[in-house]
Amino acid sequence: MSGDVPASVPSLPDGLLLEGIVTTLNNDGTPHIAPMGPIVDADFARLLLRPFRSSVTYRNLKRSGQGVLHVTDDVALFARAAVGRIDEIPKLLPAKTIDGVILADACRWYAFRVTSHDDRGERAAIVAEVVERGLTRHFFGFNRAKHAVIEAAILATRTHLLDSQYVLNEYERLAVLVVKTGGRQEHTAFDFLWKYVRDQLVQRVPTGNNDG
After folding, report:
1. Residue 87 to residue 89: CA distance in whole angstroms
2. Which residues pair with 134 in a beta bridge?
3. Can you name the residues that pair with 179 across neighbouring β-strands?
4. What CATH number does the domain containing 84 carry?
5. pLDDT band at 12; cut points 50, 70, 90
6. N or C: which terminus of the chain carries fewer CB neighbours within 10 A?
């Protein structure tokens, strides 16, 4: 998740990285839901998205040039979307100004159209303009447990890149925050991620039948 933005892509000097969920439409019209941390300017007028060129979100944005960014405190959805394990698609509503869908339970959302992109790096740099926005409910906020689940979800997407013991140590540290400050949703989301990560790490351990 590193790399500089190519010089040809407009920067957002007053922007900050916002952890959210982006919905796009697949080629067959079905929805795709993925967490993403775009750079967002102070007025939420422009976004800079950095999807990997191997991702479904990148392919959908490349093809259609439109999507919806959501701000949500539903860390359970964030956790499952991060590892591609959404068992049941949440309720969705159609966007009016773009060909896209809105998470009905998101706190607020921003429909956007792509205005420029640069594909030269491993991660594309996609600039988009917000063309429609909405407020569904007030944002609860991220307490320490919600933050811990977000961090755990990000770690879960990087198990192939990080040392196994480091990942385990981080999960043990984050578990303390969830136990102390989390509710049912946070406990459920963290338990799901913890099981997923353990399964991923077990697959990396050589077995006695491995001849090298």
Report:
1. 7
2. 109
3. none
4. 2.30.110.10
5. low
6. C
